[in-house]
Design goal:
With about 450 residues, the chain is α+β, with helices and mostly antiparallel strands. The protein folds into three domains: about 180 residues, no CATH class; about 70 residues; about 150 residues, Heat Shock Protein 90 (2-Layer Sandwich), CATH 3.30.565.10. It is about 55% helix and about 10% strand. It has eleven helices and nine strands. Helix 3 packs parallel to helix 5 and helix 4 packs antiparallel against helix 5.
């Protein structure tokens, strides 16, 4: 259903381009490029005997090496580049390669395809705007190289490629820049979104587990302190009866009795907090659903829990109370309540092989164009959910799948339906049973 009411959305908003790549990672890649360029130039000039302007060509390679040395000396193993710094670094590589290609034949040189490498790298580490800027820069460099360049080194008379061939090669490289950049950026962006969404899921589960641990600690503290405090209270009352009413100890005895009563009240409040904890206990499935739904009840929206069992299997299965199930179901129920007009019907059903929970609200339903995308991160599932990040369903699905569950989403004539199913062997506690009537 939708979305993230677990905490301030800004706390899990993705920051995909801040310090994503280390400076020395790009430096390693540039060293490989420098070594490859130098070996290629030496091989062509000396091994193949083709006349190369070695002075200008080697100067361009040395310039790249000097830039890399400067980058290396001004960084540590943990220095990360900002989006702007990484963009400028990749722009330098594009310009350096373009100048080298200008010296050795322009687009006639088969190594012109290497202009795709900086753009492909940029698409995986930079923002969309920076990737587009570098793509435009690469296309501009390729265009210049198609028109102006020094002759291609060749034995004998200079090799002249037909203009139509050069235009076809230019078009192929420009299209490759667009396609590779778009594909690599979309894949990298999906990975970034998934990483941020998984982090949000882990934060949600960790928060639930911390609340559970604090509740259990409070209950344990109340239990351990209850007995000695009761003894102190009894002893204080006896002392208060034995002292002279107007004597010097009467006021102190009354204070001890009052403060011991106050301590008992505090421990009673701590004991009441046990409802927020999630101890490892087994309970009927309807009780588990009630635990998940209780915090999300609001005035004006009725939450109805009903059961549906096959006639030959009326014994309700039990299930272990877990933070994943309570958090996952609670998130789905909360979203159903947010979009319901009058009520939410939660149906607990089971068969000899399957256990399930169906959450049906009478709201506007899921938007049809994204129904097949529900469960993916940052997909908002309702027509009216404009201010949500779309993590609610993803978090719920991730948590419930950790317990062996699977989710399906559908629309009915009125409202949306989310169904969670488990294999009975994965969830059934085996001991807790009640009649199918509830």
């Amino acid at each position: 259903m939708t979305d993230d009411t677990l905490w301030n959305p800004q706390s899990v908003a993705p920051r995909p381009f801040r310090g994503r790549v280390r400076m020395r990672t790009l430096a390693y890649i540039r060293w490989i490029a420098v070594a490859g360029q130098m070996v290629t130039l030496l091989t062509i000039h000396f091994a193949l005997g083709l006349p190369l302007p070695m002075g200008p060509a080697m100067a361009v390679v040395v310039a790249s090496a000097l830039f890399n040395i400067w980058s290396w000396s001004h960084s540590t193993a943990h220095t990360r580049l900002s989006n702007r710094q990484a963009t400028l670094s990749q722009a330098f590589d594009i310009l350096q390669l373009s100048v080298l290609l200008y010296i050795v034949g322009g687009l006639q040189n088969p190594f012109a395809l290497l202009i795709l490498a900086p753009v492909s790298i940029a698409a995986t580490i930079l923002s969309f705007t920076s990737m587009v800027a570098l793509g435009i820069l690469s296309a501009a460099c390729i265009t210049v190289l198609a028109i102006w360049h020094l002759p291609l080194p060749w034995a004998g008379s200079p090799l002249q490629m037909p203009d139509l061939y050069i235009f076809g090669l230019w078009l192929a490289i420009v299209l490759a820049i667009v396609l590779l950049a778009a594909y690599n950026w979309s894949i990298a962006e999906e990975g970034r979104r998934m990483s941020d969404a998984l982090s949000a899921t882990q934060l949600a589960l960790a928060r639930e587990q911390r609340v559970s641990a604090l509740g259990m600690l409070a209950a344990f503290t109340a239990h351990r302190l209850g007995s000695p405090l009761a003894t102190i209270s009894v002893a204080a009352k006896e002392i208060a009866r034995d002292v002279v009413p107007d004597g010097p100890l009467a006021e102190d005895a009354a204070l001890i009795v009052s403060e011991s009563k106050r301590c008992r009240d505090i421990l009673a409040e701590l004991s009441d907090e046990r409802d927020d904890a999630l101890p490892v206990v087994e309970m009927p499935l309807t009780a588990l659903v009630e635990t998940a739904a209780e915090p999300h009840a609001v005035d004006g929206i009725a939450i109805q829990i009903q059961t549906d069992a096959t006639p030959h299997d009326s014994a309700q299965p039990g299930a272990l109370l877990s933070a994943e199930i309570v958090q996952g179901l609670g998130n789905l129920i909360e979203n159903a309540v947010q979009f319901a007009r009058r009520g939410v019907i939660i149906t607990v059903f089971w068969t000899p092989s399957e256990i399930g929970v169906e959450i049906h609200d009478d709201g506007p339903g899921f938007s049809p164009h994204i129904l097949h995308q529900l469960g993916e991160p940052y997909v908002s599932s309702r027509k009216t959910s404009e201010n949500h990040m779309g993590l609610g369903v993803f978090i719920a699905q991730t948590l419930l799948e950790r317990t062996g569950g699977s989710l399906t989403f559908a629309n009915r004539q009125r409202g949306a339906v989310v169904t969670v199913r488990w294999l009975r062997t994965a969830l059934d506690g085996g001991d807790a049973t009640i009649s199918a009537d509830g």
